[in-house]
Amino acid sequence: MLQDKPKCNCGVFGIFGNPNASVNTYYGLHALQHRGQEACGIVTKSFNQKNKSIFNVHKGDGLVSEVFSDPKILNDVLIGDSAIGHNRYSTTGSTESKNNIQPFVVNYRLGNLAVAHNGNISNSKILRDELVNEGAIFQTTSDTEVILHLIARSRLNDQVEQIKEALQKLEGAFSITILTDDKLIAARDNYGFRPLCIGIKDNSFIIASETCAFDINMADFLREVEPGEIVIIDDDAIKEQRVKSIKLSEDEFEKKHCIFEYIYFSRPDSFVFGNNVDKMRRRLGRILANHHPVVDKDGDKLIVISVPDSSNTCALGYQRQLEKNGINSKLEIGLIRSHYIGRTFIQPGQEKREMSVRIKFNVVKGVLEGRTVVIVDDSIVRGTTSKQLVKLIKSAKPKEIHFRISSPPIMHPCYYGMDFPTREELIANKFSGDIKKIKEHLGVDSLEYLTMDELLQSVQEDGKDNFCTACFSGEYPTDVDFTFKKEIYEQ
Known about the structure:
This protein is of the alpha+beta class. It has 18 helices and 26 strands.
């Protein structure tokens, strides 16, 4: 499969007080499939004949439609009026154990507890070592399990306070849903790295990573969970139609939203960090066109294409701004993407990387032949797929090929929930940020990225300092354990 894009580690969903909780969660996870495609799971809460709360679990490797292909799972197994769900992206070493598939479920002295987490706990190795030394036994290699142990080992007697105490010990990124015997709890870290929002359907409340999970369920978006906020949904919240909320900390923290949610991760139809993602991607395209235009050397019409699907909206903004600036251009569909690959396919022979690209993309030769082509993409990670993509487009015999990227060069790994390869594998780091050398490696006529200042123009109305750009700048908002091994401690 293509591995030249960053992966976002997971999407979360929760619903409380709805008789169709499992079905709503299924559809919510389906809408959030882009956030995790390796595995998924759903936990529901129901009651036995003695009116005692029980948790029902189903999870497995694969897409949502694969794991829940049997209708009996939703109708007969996952019964109950409350649920949480999780989509997972995994990295090397973590796919081998089904124990790593969330949500995680435990039973401890105050009852049942299930958790689903998006993000990375950057001090999880330190916490894990401390817990192991105190006698804790871990069942997974996920940083998320640390949260369960911290809650279960708390000496406090109020469950919400236990959760608050546990979350206060975490560093890094978490957008989390927790299901208890009588509550649905949602929380974001103090910096708000990853998105999380609140919706309402009929009289029930929903929590989801993105608002697109509300749309598919015909639910209404209420608001985002604030950074450093713990939201508590219980029977009283349903009766009053108002969620309860407490602060994770009394200290003030500067927001550090992941700017890659705008660049690549979130669906364009979602509302994230106070803005429509579609609007932000068009804006990135306009800024890219203003600062890094292309003109056909013979005065012919320029052909602008996207790398579907993530850069479609940005390419639209780029081409429209070129037109406004008087540059003769046209947005075309130059690449056709196959949506029927599945999770695995045969890669015959030795040209595996090239075959990966040719299986996923095909060129429209009539559009590209003899034309100056601008490829608009959101990012380049390793550069392997981009190089093969350029080779594929060259087979259509264009006049020139120009690459425009709506983000700065990725120079550093992420510790807050993005799966980038090691620093050494990042093409921008490999060439010490020398764009000319990257251009030569890719074999294009020109290559331009957005600079950091240009990128931050897109979010200046929301405050340039409110966004995390560590993968570009190397300036991490929190203390990071750089010995943290992502291949071991990963969800």
